Each structure stands twice: as C-alpha cells, then as structure tokens.
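Can you give me the bound-state structure? Components:
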Amino acid sequence: MSQFSDADRALIQFALEAEQAAHGLYSAAAASAVGKGEAGPAVALMRDHHRAYAQALNGLYGEGASTQRSAAVIEAFADRVADPSASLDALRELENVLAATHTALVGRLESTDAAALVASIVTTEARHAAVLAELAGAGLDAALDAGTEPLAP
Amino acid sequence: MTPRRAQGRPDAGTPLPHLSRRELLRLGALTLGTGGLLAACGTQAGVEESPNVPSLGVAPETTALPAAEVTDAVLLRTAASLEWTAIDTYDAAIALGVLTGPYAGAATLARRFRDDHRGHADAVNALVEGLGAEPFECANARLMEIYVGPALALITADQTADPAAEVALLAHALEQLATQTYQGVVTMLEDPALRAAALGIGGDESRHAALLARAISPAIETIGTTIDPATGKPRIAAVPGAFGSLATVQVTLGRDAQGAGTTLALDTPSLNSLAYDFVACA
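Here's the bound-state model for the whole set.
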C-alpha cells in the first residue's frame, strides 16, 4: 500500500514525466555544438542532475511509475534547444518552468516526504537557471527572473 | 520480634543498643516517609509557599516560561527575521567601503540582493499578517550575535588579507543559509500554500547564492563541485549538488596572507532563534 494519496501520486507522476523530458532535452543539447563548447561541462552536469531527479521521483512513486517524457515540455523546448544560438536561453527557460512547476506542486502535495524531495529539486533548478543566464550573458535581471508560469498537471 | 526491641528506648546514660542493618534501613525509611507526609500536608511555619512539588526545606520560586509554540506564523516571522539579517549584513558590508575597483561588480550584486531581501521581507510579512500575527521587521538578534557579528569582526581584522573577497564569501554563506531555511521549512509549515510561497522565495535566495559563487569561482569547471589542489578543500560551487542540501554552511573568514583563517559553522534557525510570538524587535 502506498504511503501517498492518489492525488499525490498523480502529482509525482507529473513531475517525473517533466524531469524525464528535461533529461532528454539536455541530452540533445549535450550532443550538439553547445555541449561541445565552453558551456559543455555545465550542460552535462545539469543533464545528470535531471536524470537524478527522474530517478528519485521514480523511486518515490514506486511500482508503476511512468517512463514517458512530458509531451508538453518536449514540444515547448525541443526546437530551440537544438538551435545552438538559442540553446542556453531555452535551457534557462526550461529550468525556470520546472522550478515554477515543482514549486506549485509543493503547494498541493499532502505528503511532506514528497514535498521535501521536490523542494530540494527546486532550489537546485533555480541555481541552474541563474548559471545558464550567466553563461549566456543574459544579464542579472534574467538570472534572477523567477516569474515564469508553471505547467498545469 | 527480637528481644532487643522488646526492651524499649534505653535510658539516658545507657549505651545505645546495637541496631542491625535492617533496623537502620527501616528507621531511615520511616523518617523520610514522615517528612514527606508532613511536607505534603500543609504549610510549615516560616516557610514560603512554593509552587513546586512538596519538598523538605525552602525551594526558590520558579518563573514560568512563556508559551513557545512553533506555528506557521512563527516560522514565517523567523524567515522575515532572516531577511532582515541579510539586509543589515549587506548594508554593513557595503559600508565597509572595500567593494571597489575590481570588486565594483560585487557591490552591484550586494545592492541588488539587499533590495531583493527587502522585497522578500515584505512578502513574508504579508503572509504573517494574513495569519493574524505581527510582522517581524528587524534582524534576528541571535543570528546577528553568533554569526554576523563574529564574521564582520573577522573580515575587518588587521590580519585579514582580502576583506573584499571575504565580504563575497560571507554573502554567499548567508544566501546559502537563507536558501536552506526556506527549503527546510517546507516540511514544517502546516499549510501547503505557505510551503509553496516560502519555497518560491527560497528559489530566489538560491539564485543569489549561485551568482555569488560564480563571482567567487568564475572558472567554468567550478560550477559543479571541485577540489582546490592548492588547499585540498572544496571550491565554492554555483551548483554544489543535484539536490539542495540542508547541511551546516561553513565559511572561512579572517584569512591571513598564508590563507589561514577561522571557520564559522552556520545553521538554519532552530528553536533558540525562532521569532516566537512573544519576541519583539528591540
């Protein structure tokens, strides 16, 4: 028997699919010119982090966890991530969307264990976004811009 | 009964009878029991009333501690106190006048982050007022005393080789602490909506910490965790791990020309530093 309510399980599944999509997008970026350039080590580091998030959320969900990538996330970012001139900005926006989405989930999760895990992901994704802004030369306002709308589960 | 007990009390001048160990124990127990009974039965002449449990002798008065319940309002008031701690620390750091020349960029960051903390303090206090509690609009006295005061003393000490660099280190440590406070409070707040509101601010603090880390360690390979081969210690990292840590924040300040300094350990506010309902700004 799961320790989570059905509502919590649905929210965790949603976060899991978003992270699996993020891992896919980062994998594409790492294999592109951006990944082979100066920002390559940072892109690879963040890709690995998103894999870790997906694994942690998968473990939290348990048996029956989704292996799907969020179609909405892929659709929103795939083209721009593949474009070397827009890739870092797209990844920053992706991080902002994920951080905002997970923050909103924390406001709905009943399980404090789940909320603690998701919160620990949010604070690092915010760091990712700030670093990507700095690497892209996007300026201080862009690095600190946390006004992105969350995705709706 | 033994024949000795049947003899009754000895007369004055009569040698005390020999008492066995068992009789001594019985006598001691009887004395204590009688004393306890008398103490419980009423006021002794010349002895002040005591709220304590019945006892022999005079017990000092005790002062009841105020009720210290850790509520959502208390946790958020504490977060506001931490914001004001950051504001006061940035003001103090800017006033040192060391963020000039190559550190002018750090001064820009310090002013921007201080202003962000003012916005955070207002936002958190709006949540506090929404809970019907008093907003908290000053720095956390305990954190100022045990963290910020000693840190500024080390930065301004004569032997400190690079005070400007250490201002950045202190700011980074405080932003880390703020991030961890908001992340940690997520599991303590009862209202899920407040958890999200707090975490949203924690994300901002996390961005501050990352940007300060980039200013301190600008090499691309130091975005993640690396070890400085010269010192054998971890470098400041913009993204020190996959998951936000709640571990103690350590910062070494007052470093002399050889790099030797004092390491301060900063922990998120705990029971002895919360802004309880009865705590007011001085």
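A couple of observations. Residues 130 and 143 of chain A are 4 Å apart (CA to CA). The longest helix of chain A spans residues 6-31.
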